[in-house]
């Protein structure tokens, strides 16, 4: 870990990404302390107000403080991104790894065709189906995103495993008397980790966007609870008279996605032993 | 006085088949040999002759569903390896029979230090703490002649040269004091001085540990240096087997003679005579999917008789003193060789 930090110092962009991620996480955790107002309390005397001393970032169509909503919205957005991606990788990586390692008809005709079928499925449609079963909520949205993103990880883990399993060090590990499961965990997984980590950071960024879309459709975070996505979509209705309603959550999503991508990029470099 | 022979590995009439879309391919067809403790047997042949498949058959590392041992026995200290369960076989791999692979550049996992990889090999077979295993790893690095072993143990494979990595591979192979070391072209891809060092190292370690080495190569120069006995393979079959001196001094199978003739020699031409052209064996090794009828070598053999060789597979016969030859005409071949200048 300390080596990680030392390495990070040599990469200003990565350090910036790490800083953004840490900041966002802190904001999400300490939202109740940081927010100057209750994010769901309307102030009907101050609807659609521009930035002012009282409301630093302005107010939305119901007079709710944008800053407070933005701070609370970090919770939903980060949760959605993080948990959805962990779920997707948690489902996808083991399946892809095992499937790619053993090959065979199960891999070829079952796993691959199922992932093809799933990748053809639009995330919104699957989310609708899940919502019908589980009821609309943030966790439904996260599960939906997690399931829809799993095939990406299956494919990536499988493709990487396919090349690693043919390497001589895997054969050498077999010749040393290792079990398949041990080889998969100790020799294959670490060698396919870099692209998976990158994919996780990219997916996390897009998962935040998908959560925004789902929330807008009423399938994710339920009003009046704020999330960046729902704020952004509402803001589009008032682009003419109150552009800041869309601008701030848009900026927040942009910064979060950028930070996560920069961090993921630097993380890959740090984790690559050839770079140590 | 008969010398006590301590045979650790015996391969008896090994048949390894691969199922392909075009039918069954007999990659190894009836190979037999015995490996003595402290001795080196070289398996020699061109690419595709079945050398590496033989070693993978011994280790039972053939790809499932594609290659399988279809017949014969592989006895390790009298135990038939084919009859072992997979967990039992895992205990043999690395502990009793270890392997060194062809490509030192890619045979080490890039994400762990070499010390960790050696320690892992030890811990796979011995109940030993991680700390003790690491200490042993450093000792092993010293044994294989790596300077500053404690520092090197913390290096990643990409930080070492090819020769160093091959030394590490040998250290891993030696981690559990195996009785048999299978070296599959361990010096291919290393430059010549490093090759010599690695061969020296293997010979020294063999002397110290008394392990048997099955040395797979296509490099006859290396064979002359390393082997006690040589087995020449062609198209999945043994075509000649003898101790190293008679084989080099008097090869009896036309194929082996061809191999010998295709080694470049310095200063071999007598004075006043222009340098003879390097002899090459005409043609290519036949595809194992489509072996010629009769002796597999006859289309390339200048001694082949149209009556016999094209129809009958000659038996592997003892031409005297344990010099085994698979050639119907070895007597004639030998005479021509002696008559020729």
Automatic annotation (TrEMBL), chain A:
Which positions are tagged coiled coil?
none
- For the keyword Magnesium, the answer is no
Q: Which residues form the ABC transmembrane type-1 domain?
A: 74-264
What is the membrane topology noted in the UniProt record heading this document?
A: Multi-pass membrane protein
Q: Where is the signal peptide?
A: none
CDD domains recorded? TM_PBP2 (cd06261)
Give GO BP annotations, semicolon-separated.
transmembrane transport
> Quick check: keyword Glycoprotein in the entry?
no
| Alphabetical keyword list | Cell membrane, Membrane, Transmembrane, Transmembrane helix, Transport
Q: What is its main location?
A: membrane
Task: Enumerate the transmembrane spans.
Answer: 12-35, 76-102, 114-134, 140-157, 196-222, 242-264
Q: Name one GO cellular component term.
A: plasma membrane
Tell me the PROSITE patterns matching this sequence: ABC_TM1
Q: Where in the cell is it found?
A: Cell membrane
Per the similarity annotation, which family is this? Belongs to the binding-protein-dependent transport system permease family.
Protein name, as recorded: Peptide ABC transporter permease
The upper taxonomy is: Bacteria, Pseudomonadati, Pseudomonadota, Alphaproteobacteria, Rhodobacterales
TrEMBL record, chain B:
Q: How does it sit in the membrane?
A: Peripheral membrane protein
Keywords assigned by UniProt?
ATP-binding, Cell membrane, Membrane, Nucleotide-binding, Transport
Q: Which InterPro entries match?
A: AAA+_ATPase (IPR003593), ABC_Ni/Peptide_Import (IPR050388), ABC_transporter-like_ATP-bd (IPR003439), ABC_transporter-like_CS (IPR017871), Oligopep_ABC_C (IPR013563), P-loop_NTPase (IPR027417)
The organism's place on the tree of life at top rank: Bacteria
GO process terms (BP): peptide transport; transmembrane transport
Main location per UniProt? Answer: membrane
Question: What GO molecular functions are on record for this protein?
Answer: ATP binding; ATP hydrolysis activity
A cellular component term (GO) from this record?
Answer: plasma membrane
Give every ABC transporter domain span. 9-260
Q: Where in the cell is it found?
A: Cell inner membrane
Task: Name the family the entry cites.
Answer: Belongs to the ABC transporter superfamily.
Q: Which PANTHER family match?
A: DIPEPTIDE TRANSPORT ATP-BINDING PROTEIN DPPD, OLIGOPEPTIDE TRANSPORT ATP-BINDING PROTEIN APPD
Protein name listed in UniProt? Dipeptide ABC transporter ATP-binding protein DppD
Q: What is the primary gene name for this protein?
A: dppD
């Amino acid at each position: 870990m300390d080596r990680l930090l030392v390495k990070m110092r040599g990469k200003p962009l990565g350090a910036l990404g790490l800083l953004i991620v840490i900041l966002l996480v802190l904001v999400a955790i300490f939202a109740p302390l940081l927010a100057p107002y209750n994010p769901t309390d309307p102030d009907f005397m101050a609807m659609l107000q521009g930035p002012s001393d009282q409301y630093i970032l302005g107010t939305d169509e119901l007079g709710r403080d944008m800053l407070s909503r933005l701070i609370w919205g970090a919770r939903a957005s980060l949760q959605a991104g993080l948990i959805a991606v962990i779920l997707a990788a948690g489902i996808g990586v083991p399946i892809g790894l095992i499937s790619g390692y053993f090959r065979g008809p199960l891999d070829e005709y079952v796993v691959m065709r199922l992932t093809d079928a799933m990748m053809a499925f639009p995330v919104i449609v699957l989310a609708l189906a899940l919502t019908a079963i589980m009821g609309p909520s943030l966790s439904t949205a996260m599960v939906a995103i997690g399931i829809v993103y799993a095939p990406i990880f299956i494919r990536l883990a499988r493709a990487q495993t396919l090349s690693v399993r043919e390497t001589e060090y895997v054969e050498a590990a077999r010749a040393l008397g290792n079990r398949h499961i041990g080889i998969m965990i100790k020799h294959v997984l670490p060698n396919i980790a870099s692209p998976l980590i990158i994919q996780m950071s990219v997916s996390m960024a897009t998962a935040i966007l998908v959560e925004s879309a789902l929330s807008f459709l009423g399938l994710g975070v339920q009003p009046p609870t704020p999330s960046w996505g729902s704020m952004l979509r509402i803001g589009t209705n008032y682009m003419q008279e109150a552009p800041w309603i869309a601008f701030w959550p848009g900026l927040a999503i942009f910064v979060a996605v950028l930070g996560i991508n920069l961090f993921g990029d630097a993380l890959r470099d740090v984790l690559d032993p050839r770079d140590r | 006085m008969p010398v006590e022979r301590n045979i650790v590995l015996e391969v008896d009439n090994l048949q390894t088949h691969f199922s392909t879309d075009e039918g069954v391919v007999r990659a190894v067809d009836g190979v037999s040999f015995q490996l003595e403790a402290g001795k080196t047997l070289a398996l020699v042949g061109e690419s595709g002759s079945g050398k590496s498949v033989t070693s993978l058959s011994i280790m039972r590392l053939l790809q499932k569903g594609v290659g399988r041992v279809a017949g014969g026995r592989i006895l390790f200290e009298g135990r038939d390896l084919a009859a072992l369960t997979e967990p039992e076989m895992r205990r043999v791999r690395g502990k009793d029979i270890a392997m060194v692979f062809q490509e030192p550049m890619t045979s080490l996992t890039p994400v762990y230090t070499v010390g960790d990889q050696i320690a892992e090999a030890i811990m796979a077979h011995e109940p030993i703490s991680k700390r003790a295993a690491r200490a042993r790893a450093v000792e092993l690095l010293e044994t294989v002649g790596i300077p500053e072993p404690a520092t090197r143990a913390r290096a990643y494979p990409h930080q070492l040269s090819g020769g160093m990595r091959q030394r590490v591979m040998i250290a891993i192979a030696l981690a559990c004091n195996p009785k048999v070391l299978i070296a599959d072209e361990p010096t291919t891809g290393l430059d010549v001085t490093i090759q010599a060092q690695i061969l020296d190292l293997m010979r020294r370690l063999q002397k110290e540990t008394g392990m048997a080495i099955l040395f797979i190569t296509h490099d006859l120069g290396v064979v002359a240096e390393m082997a006690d006995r040589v087995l020449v393979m062609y198209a999945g079959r043994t075509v000649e087997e003898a101790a190293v001196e008679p084989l080099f001094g008097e090869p009896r199978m036309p194929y082996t003679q061809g191999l010998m003739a295709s080694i470049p020699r310095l200063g071999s031409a007598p004075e006043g005579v222009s340098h003879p052209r390097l002899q090459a064996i005409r043609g290519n090794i036949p595809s194992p999917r489509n072996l010629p009828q009769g002796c597999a070598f006859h289309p390339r053999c200048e001694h082949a008789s149209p009556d016999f060789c094209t129809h009958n597979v000659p038996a592997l016969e003892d031409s005297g003193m344990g010099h085994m030859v698979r050639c119907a005409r070895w007597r004639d071949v030998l005479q021509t060789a002696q008559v020729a200048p």
